[in-house]
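Table 4 source record.
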Amino acid sequence: MSQTSPTLSLPYIQPAQAQKHVTHNEALRILDAVTQLSVISTTLTAPPGQTAEGDRYIVADAATGVWAGQEHKVAVWVDNTWQFFTPNIGWRADIASSGEEVRFDGTDWQPAGAGAAGDLQNVPLLGVNTSADATNKLAVSADATLLNNAGSGHQLKLNKSAATDTASLLFQTGFAGRAEVGTAGNDNFEIKVSPNGSSFKTALRAEAATGAVQLPSGQSYFQDVFILNDSVWSVTIPWSNPSRILMWLSVNLEGRYFLFSITGTLTGVNNFGEMFANPPGTLTYHTGPLTGTTGPAGGINISIDVTGPAPKLFVENRLGSNRLFTLSTMGK
């Protein structure tokens, strides 16, 4: 028959043993020391100056004095002497002064319990106010999620292993996709939208190789602008060069609307191709900047200017009154 228990090494009373109470009391003393373990400190390397019967400590590294060589053991002051108990893997202790909990991992005592860093490393799933699953290993259900700056900035990183993988943000309605932003299936940055969660259309694409921005679904530009009479409005051309643009131009004046194309490498008047103008002959095309009175009076003058760092589109109002102009394009 073994003389001690396998887990806490409690002494067994042996057959025909004399003074059985000594063995029994020793077992009770061990139970009293390690059951519901609460310690005063885990950082002392030497005994404190004052102690009370039953005080318990976890001996820190590099212990000295009567604690020398007892690192990581539970030290208990009893009968005016220190007794030491060797912990097993999984023992937990409450630190009375702070309410923190530590766990013995076989080598050292580590933080444990809710919110402890040791317990949040390599966890298989984490659900905050909801349940995580095999796909959504981190799940949060809340009014908001805060990722705050610490240091010189804050980056939210979405990494993928290969260009053909996906790194994106998916916006859902009823857990069905409605918009996606990121790099999906390639390294081009895209914004996609969907009415049903299954078919997506690319609204905007920024090419990884060139930085060029495309709007594959068609409409690439819209502008409402108020232009005073005999004055001009201009904008840096927001579509590609060479161009394949179909432009609709209308005015808040009954019967004033125009449809024309802008194609080819941008140079000026030769890029324009008129489909129809109403009234006929009231829209004229030019090369270079307009000043407000450059083109003929009584109509609208439009031009492309390539003399600056980027091509610009000019619209000149010579209708005889201040007007609201609408410009809308389809193409690239």
